[in-house]
Every structure is written in C-alpha cells, then in structure tokens.
Amino acid sequence: MAKILIGIGGGIAAYKTATLISRLVQSNHQVDCVVTAGGLQFIAAGTLTALCGRPPVSDTYDSRFPLGAHIELAQDAQLLIVAPATARLLASCAMGLADDLLATLYLAVECPVLFAPAMNTAMWEKVCVQRHVEMLQHDGVHFVGPTSGWLSCRRQGPGRMAEPEDILAASEEILQPQSFN
Ligand SMILES: Cc1cc2nc3c(=O)[nH]c(=O)nc-3n(C[C@H](O)[C@H](O)[C@H](O)COP(=O)(O)O)c2cc1C
C-alpha cells in the first residue's frame, strides 16, 4: 500500500481521473485528492470523497490542516500524480510559483511526481507550454501522455490525457518495487 496524492486541474479530462482513483483504491492505496478551483468545475467533491473515502482539499488555508495542507499532505507521500495537468499547472510548477494549493504541494513533496497533461492541440503545441514541460522534465518530473485522439473541442490531435490504465501503469513503474509487493 502506498500513500498517493492526486492533483486535479481544470480540464474536462478530470472525469477520467475518477477511474484512476478508483483503480488505485482497489489496489489498496491510500489516495488523497487536491483539486484546483478549475478542477471543481469538472468533477464534484462528492465523487472524489466517495472514491477516496476522504474529502478532497482545495483551500491552501483549510483549517483541518493546522500546519498547512501542503505540508501535512506531503508528509510520507510516495507519489504525486497530477491529472489532468493543465497548461496553467505546468507553468506554475515549472516556475515554482506556489500560487494555489496544488502548485504549493508540488513544491512541498519529496516524492516522485507524475504529470498527465491534457489540453487543446494548439495549447499543447505552444512554445511556452513545451518549454514548461522541458523545464519540468529537467527537474525530474515524470510524464505520461498526452496522446493523440479525440479532444473535447471536437477535433482530433495531440493533447488528449493518457487513459487511466496508462497512468496507472506509469505510476506502478515509478513506485516499484517498494510499494506494489
Ligand atoms: C470547457 C473547458 C475545458 C477546458 N479544458 C482544459 C484543458 O483540458 N486543459 C487546460 O490546460 N485548460 C483547460 N481549460 C482552461 C482551464 O480551466 C483554465 O486555464 C484554468 O485557469 C486552469 O486552472 P487550474 O490549472 O487551476 O485548474 C478548459 C476550460 C474550459 C471552460
């Protein structure tokens, strides 16, 4: 069993993250969700609460965490998965802005980090977005996807978030051998 943090950004692909969480919980992992304000536009807190067995956290100053949610959630975490990773999250994390709870948590964790980006093709191919991806890769962040396929903007192309099974496989690869035995 591993302690896994899931960060959810504001993209329609957030609905696929529900399946990822369910699979992780079924594999006996403890999952905590940190959702951006944008993420809550796409997936309900009730869905995440039921799947994780604990409520998601969005507020940096949530009074349930007297030491700071970013500090308490980061403690003993073995993996942070950000899915979907929006263009804003890629930029914020690449530059260390700590401008919301999830971007602050990114700085506070000492465990591996896996990003599953999702966005419109034009956004994904924008030079600044690719620059942020390269910066994060240089900093040791793992990436899965995006793949090419159907996008919610009614076009086909690169930018589709990796499927939950592929994110799960990438997570297992990062966590092995200590946590999946
Ligand atoms: C319908 C809709 C779908 C969106 N999908 C994406 C997306 O897949 N990827 C992305 O980077 N931004 C997407 N956005 C824009 C983000 O929600 C917006 O940039 C937001 O500021 C991201 O904030 P966050 O990173 O804090 O979640 C979408 C917006 C709307 C209205």
Provide a compact summary of the structure:
It is built from eight helices and seven strands; from the N terminus they run βαβααβααβααβββα. It has helices at residues 14-26, 45-52, 69-74, 87-95, 101-108, 121-125, 127-138, 164-175; strands at residues 3-8, 30-35, 79-85, 113-117, 142-143, 147-151, 155-160. The strands form two sheets. The protein has a five-stranded parallel beta sheet, with helices on both faces.
Task: Describe the protein in words.
- By secondary structure, this protein is of the alpha/beta class.
- The protein has one domain (3-175): Flavin prenyltransferase-like (Rossmann fold, 3-Layer(aba) Sandwich), CATH 3.40.50.
- It contains eight helices and seven strands, in the order E-H-E-H-H-E-H-H-E-H-H-E-E-E-H.
- A five-stranded parallel sheet has the order 2-1-3-4-5, sandwiched between helices. A two-stranded antiparallel sheet has the order 6-7.
- Helix 1 (14-26) packs parallel to helix 2 (45-52).
- The longest helix is centred in the first third of the chain and has 13 residues, at 14-26.
- The model has no long low-confidence stretch (mean pLDDT 96).
- Bound molecules: flavin mononucleotide (FMN).
- The site of flavin mononucleotide has 16 residues, from helix 4.
